[in-house]
Each structure stands twice: as structure tokens, then as C-alpha cells.
Design goal:
Layout: E1 24-26, E2 34-37, H1 44-75
Antiparallel strand pairs: 1-2
Length: 88
Amino acid sequence: MKHNDGLSTSLVEIGPRFVMTPIRIFGGSFGGQTLYQNLHFVSPNELRSQRLKLLGNAYNERKKAEAQRKERQSKIVLPEDPLNSVFK
């Protein structure tokens, strides 16, 4: 296409705007025999669950360390101070 100034205009595709990843293809409209199944697909709910478990593990580890610290502190026994009763 030529314009009055001598430059041409062209349409260029810059890439897909919408990409669909098939998870499962059935033989019927909404059911039937499975013709194809993507074994590598991980649902967003599973990803979210894994992320929350990792965050939960950090909390559990912190609580476990806190319990261990309290246990260590309870086992520490200071020797009796002979001068403790002098200024009473």
C-alpha cells in the first residue's frame, strides 16, 4: 500500500495474544473416552497449595526452634550462690 509520501504500510503479527494449553481431550462433548491427557499439567490450586505448605513449614520450624530453646533454658541449673543470703 503506497501513501502519498511514498512510504508503505504493512501489518506485522507480533505474537499470539491468547494461548490455550489443553489438559484433557475427551471423545465426546463433555465426557467420554480420554483421547489426550497432559501429564505435565499442574493446576493453579496445586501450585498455591505447595506455596502455602512452604510458608507453613517456615512457621513450624520457627515454633520447633522456640520449643527447643525453652527446653534448653529449663535444663540450665545455676549453682547455689553461698553469698546469696548475706544481705537479707
